Amino acid sequence: MSTKEKISEELLLKEEVVTQNEIVLYNDEVNTFDHVIDTLITACEHTPEQAEQCSIIVHHNGKCTVKTGLYDDLKPRCSMLLEAGLSAEIV
């Protein structure tokens, strides 16, 4: 007969809570698709495909989250969107 020894280890994980914010882009009747796409590529570092998809979502749904991250990273990006005449906010 063999004796099986069970070793129980407790692992405590320290969980870091990081607050993620979002830039939400809103639809308007002023800006063209091309302008929105170009601005998303510049301000949010989107690929052309990502920017096009976001512009379509904004057009059909009225809004779209275009970037997620820390507030300090999002603030200048949102400012660029606003300066380009787009409607956006950080939530």
UniProtKB/TrEMBL annotation:
GO molecular function term, any single one: peptidase activity
Domain named Adaptor protein ClpS core: residues: 22-83
Gene Ontology biological-process annotations: protein catabolic process; proteolysis
Keywords: Hydrolase, Protease
Keyword match Repressor: no
Annotated protein name in UniProt: ATP-dependent Clp protease adaptor ClpS
UniProt organism field: Wocania arenilitoris
